[in-house]
Amino acid sequence: MLLSEGDLQAIVLTLELASITTAILLVLGTPIAWWLARTKSWWKGPLGAVVALPLVLPPSVLGFYLLLTMGPHGPVGQFTQWLGLGTLPFTFWGLVVGSVFYSLPFMVQPVQNAFESIGDRPLEAAATLRASPLDTFFSVVLPLALPGFITASILTFAHTVGEFGVVLMIGGNIPGETRVASVQIYDHVEALDYGQAHRLSAVMLVFSFLVLLALYAWRPNPKKV
Amino acid sequence: MKRLHTLLLTLALAASGAAQAGKITIAAAADLKFALDEIVTVFKQANPGEEVGVIYGSSGKFHTQIQQNAPYDLYFSADIKYPQELAKKGLAASAVKPYAFGRIVLWSASLDASKMTLTSLTDPKITRIAIANPKHAPYGKRAEEALRSVGLWDKVQSKLVYGENIAHTAQFVQTGNAQAGIIALALAVNPELASKGGYWLIPDKLHQPLEQGYIITQRAADNPLAKRFADYMDGKAARAVMVKYGFGLPGEAASN
Fold it and tell me: Which of A106, A145, A156, B67 allows an S-S link to A114, with CB 3.0 to 4.6 Å?
């Protein structure tokens, strides 16, 4: 077997984390992107900046704040304990929360761009045909913005797969729970186990390349995103 | 003749100037964070003008980095095995010197761990226990050995979370995300950590000794400051600081 059981477990966990994060961000990110694309409010600037923050912030900053706020003395930790859920650090769902923040701009920005490029005319046309706003969104906006959604989903998924710093800080490295592929590779290197590190790294390299290749090959018309 | 004299004088001045502006970078295991900080502060006071930088991290990582020509002049490992391997590969400019024996403690930031033993870890109120990663961190290996030798490893394994190094492990406990942890005594006696909870010294017969060793790296073979710092580390003042932080010293009967 090329990969050990622990490595396979780490890969499966990584894919689970990336899939769930992408699904959650599709639901959360779409309304944010829509608002950012359509609003003329003064708040567009500040909210856009907040959404883009994870692009700039070191993952250690995000990990540090998450560890404190989700910990037993932090506000989020107090709330989850009150709900009887315990605290989030060292759990898979803690990583999901971290990843949702970490990958937020990768979902919101491409979708926002897609919404903006649609412009007002298709929406006005739909309105004159007496389509309800919801109907307009699903029959007109979604099909037109589909390339943006696909780009955003692939980027979000790939970016979550590549997550390391946040996971290291809030994960606790538990096999099958928070030990994702990037952390597993780090451990192999730390343990001077270069053979295993090489194999798992090669898998990640090939995977990442294929994802990006799919992304670029899929766009038949680069002018229209 | 006079010109030669001037030249010699200039050279001598330049040489002394160079000696004055010595510079070393030390790679040190995370358990040394507080002890070595104190030693370096005193060393700098006695040697003004010298630049001494310390980088703390995991011993295993430094071991890898030094093999890739990392710019470290001295390497203080938490496990003497690592510098020994480097010496075998010809990457050391000094003999491998044992400088301390580390001790592990049970520590908690919320509970009084001084009234606990390892058996207390099975308490259902303790849901998370932090240890350093036994796969590569020397303190993690000893924590695992101690838990195994009291027959608790299998019972508490599902509660374990793993820190990247011993300072990272302490941080999991300090933030309360793990209710208890096994960390270095050298960290637990630091006022910041000692002000919370309390610690229980794990008997050293439960695990292999944590023998720590250092080397001067090949790159610092001609760096007199590296040699001076190594000598200082072997001296009385530095050894006293190490004892203060709970380290055992090579060549001396272990306390406890």
Answer: A145
pLDDT beneath 70, residues of chain B: 1-20, 253-256
d(CA B194, CA B34) in angstroms, rounded, equals 13
Residue A72 forms contact with B (CB below 8 Å): yes
- The fold of the B19-101+210-244 domain, in CATH, is D-Maltodextrin-Binding Protein; domain 2 (3.40.190)
pTM of the model as a whole: 0.81
User: What is the spatial distance between Cα B147 and Cα A183, in angstroms, rounded to a whole number?
Assistant: 24
Residue in the block written with tokens 């270069």: A194
* B contacts of A191 (beta carbons < 8 Å): 60, 135-136
CA distances from B206 to B114, B153, B248 (A): 18, 13, 16
Read off the pLDDT of residues B187-226 as tens digits, 9 standing for 90 and up: 999 888 888 888 999 999 999 999 999 999 999 999 999 9
Asked if A187 and B135 come within 8 Å (Cβ–Cβ), the reply is: yes
Q: Provide the 8-state DSSP code for A62.
A: H
The CATH H-level superfamily of B104-201 is Periplasmic binding protein-like II (3.40.190.10)
**CB < 8 Å to B64, chain A:** 189-190, 192
Residue B202, min C-alpha distance to chain A (Å): 23
Chain B residue with minimal CA distance to A77?
B177
